Amino acid sequence: MSDTHLNFIAGEWKPSRGGTTFGDENPARRGSDLCRFQASTAEDMDEAITAANEAFRAWRRTPLADRQHYISEFLKLLQKSSEELAAIVTQENGKTIRESRAEVGSALVEGNYHLNQVAAFYGHTGPGAFQDITTWVQYQPLGVVGVISPWNFPMNVMCRKTLPALLTGNTVVFKPATFTPWSGVFMARLFEQAGLPAGVFNCVTGLGSSIGNVIVQDPRVRAISFTGSTEVGKKIQVKAAANLTRTQLELGGKNALIVMDDASIDKAVDAAMTAGFACAGQWCTSTSRILLHHAIAQPFIEKLVARCEKMVVDDGSREATDMGPVAGPQQYEDICAAIQKARAEGARMIAGGDTPNAAQGYFIRPTVFAGVTPGMSVFQEEIFGPVLAVSAFGTLDEALELANHSIYGLSSAIFTRDLANAKAYIDAIEAGLAHVNIHTGYKEPSMPFGGVKQSGSGLPENSESGLEFFIDRKAIYLRS
Ligand code: NAP
Ligand code: MG
């Protein structure tokens, strides 16, 4: 009998009023049920929003240093439980244990960044321009904030949203993805252990299509920070508009890696392997299109295919595994269907395509398509799996036109030794992240993280904007 986890509302662990639960499958073991979670109802969500709204009154007046103390305690607990948490992420998401450790490590780095940055963020004062008055801009917390996260980074994405929200004096209602609720509930326990006052952080599990809607439509919720698909992001934007609720939407991508004829081929292949197949291609910043200069296309492809064939695809909890399964049955079916479609549309499959140990788990080998043209779905659609689409070009202008031929604009990269190429790419690429001789997934907490076009909307996460999203500005004019 597997454990049943409860919701965390107003500082207490509570079952859903609906009385039903759902399971969590380890994608490396079909049919497994790691533990059970509350299939929450609109009433449960309403209770969590009420708790967060009540807790806001005291939390907003809690001195910054005290808020920092709670978050600092939380980060110490996170550090202490890194190994246990990484094992949970691998079990419920499928990524390799090394990737899960890196995810926890990244949450700690980003959390410490916000913890230190928040003090510098406050304090803008000065004399008035026209009279003997003092003016300043006062930052105020918004109130209750809804955090909705995806399954591909089940603990890091929620931390990147929740910690800046709490540090700036907001209270949070968090809904984890249904595929990966365990790490979300684990984070709630850490907040409880850190001594956070009741109601300041609440976690409610259940389906996005039901309780996700409730949190987006409730007028007491002042902002929604969402990471997930472009399709759901658009629905949230529309619903949030009814109350002018602020949104921060981090959405899908179809990220291009451009390789020029003067590039180091080995380094470019390394970048394609890292960002193409880490987490089985399920980073939002995964490389999914590779654009090769004609002159180096052949040697690049040969090296890439040889590396793909060597990859060990297996249960992510084994240290020898290079790539784990994809996250669940739906992803598995969608990715297999996208591979079939690419073949039917005439793309040439030069690596992978097969599904080893299919009876055991949702494994798909690293798959590469060559001869891809912009009209093909494998060039256009976010597959969110270990599938690379390779196209060739003659000039940098052509490469940029291909790269920008997408509804998405999240990340990108170019490999070149020529500074003029690098500069032209930086100026022209339509993406929130631009990398020169670095893979598409690289990021740092002091830099904004967000997409353009249909990859995102609202202020980006991380950097100063990651804090700014969670405050209102009040213009103060004071005459004594
Ligand atoms: P998703 O299906 O859009 O789900 C994301 C979250 O939204 C889940 O918690 C989901 O709940 C919830 N949800 C679903 N329908 C909802 C609704 N109508 N109202 C409110 N919430 C709702 O995305 P996913 O499949 O979990 O994640 C993969 C996607 O995320 C990819 O497109 C990827 O590119 C993107 N992503 C983007 C970034 C970035 O920073 N740009 C980072 C990571 C991932 P349920 O799980 O219960 O359905
Ligand atoms: Mg799972």
Quick structural overview:
The protein has 480 residues and is an alpha/beta fold.
Key traits:
15 helices, Aldehyde Dehydrogenase, Chain A, domain 1, 7-stranded mixed sheet, single chain, binds magnesium ion, 6-stranded mixed sheet, alpha/beta, Aldehyde Dehydrogenase, Chain A, domain 2, 480 residues, 2 domains, binds NADP nicotinamide-adenine-dinucleotide phosphate
The CATH architecture classification of the largest domain is 3-Layer(aba) Sandwich
Bound molecules: NADP nicotinamide-adenine-dinucleotide phosphate, magnesium ion
Main-sheet strand order equals 14-15-16-13-12-18-19
**CATH fold title of the largest domain:** Aldehyde Dehydrogenase, Chain A, domain 1
Distance between the termini: 68 Å
**Shape annotation:** globular
Strand content: 15-25%
- C-alpha Rg (nearest Å): 23 Å
- Rounded average pLDDT: 96
Overall domain count = 2
CATH class descriptor of the largest domain: Alpha Beta
Seen as an oligomer or otherwise, the chain set is single chain
Question: Low-confidence parts, pLDDT < 50 over ≥5 residues?
Answer: none
User: CATH homologous superfamily of the largest domain?
Assistant: Aldehyde Dehydrogenase, Chain A, domain 1
Q: How does the helix and strand content classify structurally?
A: alpha/beta
DSSP, total strands: 22
User: What's the main sheet like?
Assistant: 7 strands, mixed
> Total number of helical segments?
15
The helix content is: 40-55%
